[in-house]
Amino acid sequence: AAAAGAPVVLWARDPDHAREMAETRANARHLPDVPLATSVRPTSALTELSGCDAILLVVPAQAVREVTTALAFVLPTHAPLVICAKGIERDTGFFLSDVVADLRPGAPVAALSGPSFAHDVAIGLPTAVTLAAPDPILAATLAARLSGRALRVYHSLDLRGVEIGGAGKNVLAIACGAAIGRGLGESARAALTARGFSELMRVARAYGGRAETLMGLSGLGDVVLTCASAASRNFAFGERLGRGASVAEAAGGKLVEGAFTANALSALARARGVEMPIADAVAALVAGRAGLDETMEALMSRPLKAED
Ligand SMILES: NC(=O)C1=CN([C@@H]2O[C@H](COP(=O)(O)OP(=O)(O)OC[C@H]3O[C@@H](n4cnc5c(N)ncnc54)[C@H](OP(=O)(O)O)[C@@H]3O)[C@@H](O)[C@H]2O)C=CC1
Ligand SMILES: O=C(CO)COP(=O)(O)O
Known about the structure:
This protein is of the alpha/beta class. The protein has two domains: 8-159, Rossmann fold; 160-300, N-(1-d-carboxylethyl)-l-norvaline Dehydrogenase, domain 2 (Orthogonal Bundle), CATH 1.10.1040.10. The chain is built from 14 helices and nine strands. It has helices at 15-24, 64-74, 96-103, 118-122, 136-146, 159-181, 186-206, 211-214, 217-228, 233-242, 247-251, 257-271, 277-286, 292-300, and strands at residues 8-11, 26-27, 31-35, 40-43, 55-57, 81-83, 109-113, 127-132, 151-156. Strands 5-6-7-8-9 form a five-stranded mixed β-sheet, sandwiched between helices. The chain has a two-stranded parallel ribbon with strand order 1-4. A two-stranded antiparallel ribbon has the order 2-3. β6, α3 and β7 (109-113) form a beta-alpha-beta unit. The chain is globular and about 55 Å long. Bound molecules: NADPH dihydro-nicotinamide-adenine-dinucleotide phosphate (NDP) and 1,3-dihydroxyacetonephosphate.
């Protein structure tokens, strides 16, 4: 947002962290080698967001409800909230836009998603993402305001499709990482990526998402990035599981959104009669209901069918 020319209030929950960022003009905890742009003003006072005309909600998916609840007290109803997390609420199975709509009824909501490692964006490497909102003017306006020299923000009306692509790709990345960690090879990774993508298309269709959205940046684009890169926390988590680590060891204290999302995604699919065997397998793996070899065996012995 700062690179696109906006003055930015950067809220952090920890007052010491906000103070340190304001003093050092860097975020040593999360992006240590990237100086803060001069137009970024760190704070830990939520009330300082009340004058902002758009909010980027960049917290883990499972924290969206807590932070939105607090924000609802300070934001005017017309201020759009842009969800940047990729996941599904584990306890309720809600899409994140439904969590936000629940807490801020009638307020504008959008989602920003796509292939974009935070560090790449922060240092100004070329990146393209999608901003979706049901309101076409809001989607186009927010996308234009966030786009800059290095970050291209496309806009879309398909909020559900964008949310499903972002949440689902993390689950697929775990499957791909596990296959690589177990030594199953690049061909297995490609098979899991393609068949997993087909699962995402099916579940998105069942929830009203458009195929074009899934084939775009927030779907295929992010599947390609996350399933192929060891820099992805979800992929790296899967890779460590594949090498025999326990779930806790594999996570290593890092945020692994796919591990929180897999079960909820499987349940959403089942509720609409959609088959997602790869997501089911990841859900079983991260819950400790099945081992990796057993999971692969079950996937490989599924009845053959026409490719869909
Ligand atoms: N990192 C990346 O490259 C990308 C991440 N995303 C998505 O963005 C989301 C956040 O990921 P990421 O930024 O990496 O995660 P982090 O773990 O770095 O957390 C982001 C921020 O959220 C804060 N936070 C966590 N829990 C709470 C809470 N309960 N209340 C208030 N603040 C909280 C953290 O604060 P504190 O520092 O105090 O812990 C931190 O500043 C995820 O859904 C991820 O999938 C999407 C694209 C790229
Ligand atoms: O969403 C991301 C890139 O688009 C980041 O993925 P990880 O959370 O797996 O690191």
